[in-house]
Amino acid sequence: MKSSERSFARRIDLTSLQLFVAVCELGSIGRAAEREFLAASAISKRLSDLETAVDTALLYRHSRGVTLTPAGESLLHHARTVLFGLERMQGELSEYAEGVRGHVRVHANISAIFQFLPEDLGTFARMHSQIKIDLQEHLSPDVLHAVQEGATDLGICNTGSHGASALHSRPYRTDRLVLVVPQGHTLSARDAIHFEEVLDWDIIGLHAGSSISLSMRAAAATAGRPLRQRIQVTGLDAMCRMIDNGLGIGLLPDRAFALMHGIGRLQAVPLQDAWAHRELRLVARDFDALPVTARLLAEHLAPPAPPAHH
Asked: Do residues 83 and 141 both lie within one domain?
């Protein structure tokens, strides 16, 4: 850390940040003083000192309360991030005192979470009961970004063309996309189908940034055809319910469809396109540099490949 950065950090105290956030949330120094059981003059002094520390005005003061300056908006965002990080730190440290011996942060896409991770993480948790796993669902590009930025220890996603070249990765699982249609649909009698034939129908899609949506758009562009994606949902079960009610057809990973066999009267038709066969990968900045607990989980999920014999 540069000396100027250290100097700035010393000028900012956490209590002032907490009071600043309280004033912003309540829109009034007086209401914040009541909630925090402090004198309004004490909070006002803290805010003035904070403005001096950052060398800019943070609040517009008027008879009805306060509003944020552009600099105040920026500080509010960063203050909330800092305070949230401290809450997580406190929570994790208290768990260490209660017997937890490590944390592993994992970000994964919906395909990995729905199809494979419940069993894999369950097995790991039974083997290592004192290690806590923090799992969050994100789109594949966001998973890779979080790993690159150090916001998570491990990521599981479809790396595809999302710029994972700077990361280390290992094979995790594979899946295959299938076309899901209502029973009795014109396409339900097919043994297999090319995606280009699907473009004549309305499609129920996942989030626009999901790997499946990105693959569909790329395939439609290659075919020179529009993608009739009328409805977008965030969950695989919601997609199946939409399809069951005649609102369109959609693509799902094969195992995910098998796990949801009780949702509606639906049928799966395998896709013949090469991109329908997908590989989920485990990614990290550097597997060898991971904390011991994260390395244990990485080796449980995707053991390193043995060295090649010459």
From this structure: no
246 pLDDT band, cuts 50/70/90, is very high
Q: Are 156 and 106 in contact (CB under 8 A)?
A: yes
At residue 310, does pLDDT exceed 60? no
In a domain, 307, yes or no: no
Give the chain's largest Cα–Cα span.
Answer: 80
Taking the C-alpha atoms of residue 270 and residue 187, their distance in angstroms, rounded to an integer, is 11
Give the count of domains, the chain.
3
Average pLDDT over residues 223-231: 91
The sign of the torsion formed by the CA atoms of 167, 170, 172, 177 equals: positive
Return the bridge partners of 174, or none: 279
In a domain, 310, yes or no: no
Judge whether 308 lies within some domain: no
Half-sphere exposure of 112 (CA within 13 A, CB side): 31
At 256 the three-state DSSP class reads helix
Category of 102 on φ-ψ map: left (φ > 0), alpha (ψ -120 to 50) or beta = left
pLDDT in tens, 60-77: 998 888 999 999 999 999
